[in-house]
Amino acid sequence: MARIAVIPGDGIGPEVMGEAVRILGVLSEHPELDLEWEAWDLGAERFLRSGVTISDEDFHRLAEDYDAILLGALGDPRVPGNEHARDILLGLRFRLDLYVNYRPCTVRHSRHSPLRSPLGAAMDVHIFRENTEGSYAGVGGAIRQGTPDEVAIQEDVNTYKGVERIVRAAFDFARGRGGNRLTMVDKANAMPAAGGLWRRVFQEVAQEFTEIDTEVMYVDAMAMDLVRRPDHHQVVVTSNLFGDILSDLGAVLSGGLGMAASANVHPGRHALFEPVHGSAPDIAGQGAANPMAAILCVALLLEHLGWRWAGARVEAAVQAALEEDVGTPDLGGDASTGQVGLWLADHLRNDRNLWERDTHG
Ligand code: ATP
């Protein structure tokens, strides 16, 4: 039995998670998919009601009682400082030590990539972003704030252990997927201390994966390359800051925020899946949010739980919807959030490859 904590959250979060849960419902009818989920009341509503963002007991239960967490989005105009989002999301990332931020950037239909070329259609890049240190480690401070003598220091923290484990996760993924190229991205010319560590560790770990070609690129060159020859890259590993930027670029090149899913993982221990998009208050409550990113998170979650074949059927359902031009307004379609979810649920119910799977295959 796999237990999933579902945190719908704020804004469009509950709408897209409603559709993700609909898909979980269909899948749980499969005799091999022993799934159970529970909704969690975490987000702006609870914070405004009780003053609590997330308690120690919540952290403890989320860590101990579940195999995975599925999160919609956090962010609400009524909480301008977004302290609840910071406490919940960053809290879970750091307390569960979710050091891998995995973001697939796959073009599913050329119509949805702004790259109007056959190369754009062939983009299938898997980004591994270090998720616990780098420039986002929170080391630094400011003095003489608000004066002309203000000094602000934001350190870039890179540890041997931190670099080694994300590099290894990327190599493991490349090997598991039968990939033959892994690219490490840094800025070693301008940031030689961090770059030196990353390059040394990358070379060290590469000795154990001799079947995989390695490549090292500066982040500025990579940003250009993702646009110029997106079909060239397969698996990319990089720091927290560079990964944040490159994966948003990858998201928009591969179909936009409504399609981009992500996983935050501590391999072998904890995993949290969330769409890349936020709470989008501008479209919340209108039934206009694209639920595909949330539903593709379900596909990643299934793969994480060891049911890659089922995740592949969810991806195939999304693919079929795109081919039939079923989509919300962000994709140029006229379907509502619920209509897309229902279409995908129906497609899965009728997917013989899902239901007649050779159980020993
Ligand atoms: P937050 O502060 O929670 O990050 P945000 O509005 O600043 O929210 P996003 O939610 O990431 O940032 O989205 C930016 C814009 O992209 C939204 O205003 C919305 O118009 C669009 N958008 C995001 N997600 C979706 C989606 N799933 N479907 C359709 N449009 C979306």
Compact summary:
With 361 residues, the protein is of the alpha/beta class. The chain has 13 helices and twelve strands.
What does this 3D model show about the protein?
By secondary structure, the protein is an alpha/beta fold. It has two domains: 1-108 and 257-361, Isopropylmalate Dehydrogenase, CATH 3.40.718; 114-126 and 133-253, 3-Layer(aba) Sandwich (Isopropylmalate Dehydrogenase), CATH 3.40.718. The chain is built from 13 helices and twelve strands. Strands 2-1-3-12-11-4-5-10-8-9 form a ten-stranded mixed β-sheet, sandwiched between helices. The chain has a two-stranded antiparallel ribbon with strand order 6-7. Bound molecules: adenosine-5'-triphosphate. Adenosine-5'-triphosphate (ATP) binds next to loops.
- The coarse silhouette is globular
Helix and strand run: EHEHHEHEHEEEHEHEHEHEEHHHH
Largest sheet: 10 strands, mixed
Discrete helix count: 13
Q: How many beta-strand segments?
A: 12
Summarize the helices and strands and which ones pair or pack:
Blueprint: E1 2-9, H1 13-27, E2 35-39, H2 44-50, H3 56-64, E3 68-73, H4 83-95, E4 100-106, H5 118-121, E5 124-130, E6 140-143, E7 151-154, H6 160-176, E8 181-186, H7 192-206, E9 213-218, H8 219-228, E10 235-238, H9 240-253, E11 261-266, E12 270-275, H10 292-304, H11 308-323, H12 337-349, H13 352-355
Parallel strand pairs: 1-2, 1-3, 3-12, 5-10, 8-9, 8-10
Antiparallel strand pairs: 4-5, 4-11, 6-7, 11-12
Helix pairs in contact: 1-10, 1-12, 6-7, 8-9, 10-11, 11-12
The structure holds adenosine-5'-triphosphate.
Adenosine-5'-triphosphate is lined by residues 12, 16, 73, 75, 257-258, 277-283, 289-290, 293, 328, 330.
